[in-house]
Specification:
The chain has 504 residues and is of the alpha/beta class. Among the domains are: 259 residues, Alpha-Beta Barrel (TIM Barrel); 29 residues. It is built from 18 helices and eleven strands. Helix 10 runs parallel beside helix 16 and helix 15 crosses helix 16.
């Protein structure tokens, strides 16, 4: 095609020919003398036309034809450029347009700007708090280390590991030299966790077919999943207990494996519903001896700055849609004791949203753990207690600041609360530093007079159920509050407010 195009664009007709071509042309001229020109073949007519040099009009016409020929290809390329190279394409399309410096209220750009600003503010606040805590600790602990150089295993417990600086003080939960020597004699450092397998899941009769797979249910004999899948544990009278649940497992293979294999068996694990191979992960955890919970994503107060994830339970959705999402979450894998609320500070305290969810969970026989990390009783936890559903609330978030000193301080506060109240529950993420500090902390926990228990063993010990009269009054008050908020946001009330302002 290119060759024909160049041949077409070549000016004039062919002027150079061989001797043979000349002879043929002379013969053809002799033959064509008696034939009218219009009756000759087209090729012969073209040959007999006189040669003339290309003119300016000829050149312009050929250029126009070339442009018209290539124009569709150029248009197609420009149309496909944003798809082939989005950055270059959109920069080319918007070349010369005014730069947008201010976000229009209510647009996606404004939302992204607010999210970015909120993230930067939180990071700056966390850095300031960490710096203030470090300065306070350095000023109060300038004495030289009396233990000197320690083996790596002991250094992990005293806060003098490879990650600590020379002038960094030991953690608040460090041991005395006598206690370290006693633990070394007992072989307490880096001991491998012995497996104590639980019954494989699913247990027949404890699930049924749902819209998205098998969902938990109460067995015909009254056995609930919270009872059947919990790790067996017996509480002793007058003995303080602490419980810890590690959440967010399943998303990272290495962290999940470390949590299952390196943490004490009485530490409960919570799997994310967004992870892959959840039945396989649960089987590994139960084979090791851990009880497992399902992480339940719910809407927080600072949404969308904190995003619970897709198919999370949201206050903006109708009751039916939230129940459909709940059933999808419950069908992710079988064999868990209950659910632990992920975020959910807003959803768990809105009566019209959380009440149907708690009723559904109560019918399935699951335990509900409120994961707001505030230590206060949310509406969700209160509703679960009123329904006599196994429940618990998180007293401390152990690794909000994922540093050794901050984690040890939270664990120390957890132990102190257990000594005061008799029990306390902490929540942690699957950070490597968290797993390491939890393991070292658990090895010396009983020396402080406190024992480690599974979360299921401390069910229904923190929230007292309300009487029917108190529960009904609370529901009426919540409904009145919600209706008032809805009324304030309605167009009629907005118009009335505008009219009042104009009248004044």
């Amino acid at each position: 095609m290119i060759g024909k195009l160049f041949k077409f664009l070549r000016p004039g007709r062919k002027t150079e020919s061989s001797a043979t071509d000349t002879d043929d042309a002379m013969l053809s001229d002799t033959v064509a003398e008696d034939v009218p020109f219009t009756e000759l073949p087209v090729a012969e007519q073209y040959r007999l036309l006189p040669a003339r040099p290309p003119s300016r009009r000829w050149r312009l016409s050929k250029l126009l034809l070339l442009v018209l020929y290539l124009l569709p290809f150029g248009v197609a390329y420009l149309a496909a450029l944003p798809l082939i190279d989005p950055e270059t394409g959109w920069r080319l399309i918007h070349l010369g347009s005014p730069r947008v410096t201010a976000a229009i209220p209510g647009t996606e750009r404004e939302l992204q700007s607010e999210i970015a600003k909120g993230v930067l503010d939180i990071e700056a606040r966390n850095r300031a708090e960490e710096e203030a805590r470090r300065n306070a600790t350095d000023n109060g602990n300038n004495a030289p280390d009396a233990l000197g150089d320690l083996p790596p295993e002991i250094a992990k417990l005293t806060g003098q590991g490879s990650g600590a600086t020379g002038n960094e003080p030991a953690s608040s939960g460090s041991l005395s030299p006598e206690e370290l020597a006693a633990m070394a004699e007992e072989g307490g450092f880096e001991q491998k966790i012995e497996a104590d397998p639980l019954r494989p899941a699913p247990i027949p009769g404890l699930d049924e077919e749902g819209s998205f797979g098998r969902v938990p249910r109460i067995a015909d004999d009254g056995t609930t999943p919270a009872q059947a899948y919990a790790r067996p544990f017996t509480l002793e009278p007058e003995q303080p207990y602490v419980a810890v649940i590690v959440t967010g497992l399943g998303l990272n293979t290495d962290r999940t494996a470390n949590a299952i294999e390196d943490l004490p068996l009485n530490i409960s694990l919570a799997l994310s519903p967004y992870a892959e191979d959840l039945p396989k992960t649960l089987a590994r955890a139960r084979q090791m001896g851990h009880e497992v919970f399902l992480q339940l994503p719910m809407e927080p107060d600072d949404f969308p700055l904190s995003d619970p994830g897709p198919r999370a339970l949201m206050t903006t959705l109708p009751e039916g849609e939230n129940l459909v999402r709940l059933e999808w979450l419950l069908a992710r894998f079988p064999g868990y004791v209950g659910v632990v609320g992920h975020l959910g500070s807003k959803f768990a305290n809105l009566d019209s949203s959380i009440r149907p969810v708690i009723d559904f969970l109560d019918k399935t026989g699951l335990m509900y753990i409120d994961g707001n990390n505030t230590g206060t009783v949310s509406l969700a936890a209160q509703l679960a207690a009123n329904a006599e559903e196994p429940n618990a609330i998180i007293d401390f978030n152990i690794d909000t600041i994922p540093s050794r000193q901050a984690i040890d301080a939270q664990l120390s506060a957890l132990v102190n609360k257990a000594k005061t109240d008799g029990f306390a529950i902490g929540l942690a993420q699957s950070y490597p530093v968290t797993i390491q500090r939890l393991r070292n902390w658990a090895q010396r926990l009983e020396r402080q007079g406190v024992k480690l228990a599974p979360v299921s063993a401390l069910a229904s010990k923190q929230v007292k159920p309300q009487s029917p009269q108190e529960a009904a009054a609370t529901q009426r008050m919540n409904e009145t509050t919600e209706n008032a908020h809805k009324g304030d946001a309605s167009p009629n009330n907005a118009d009335a407010t505008e009219q009042t302002i104009e009248g004044n």
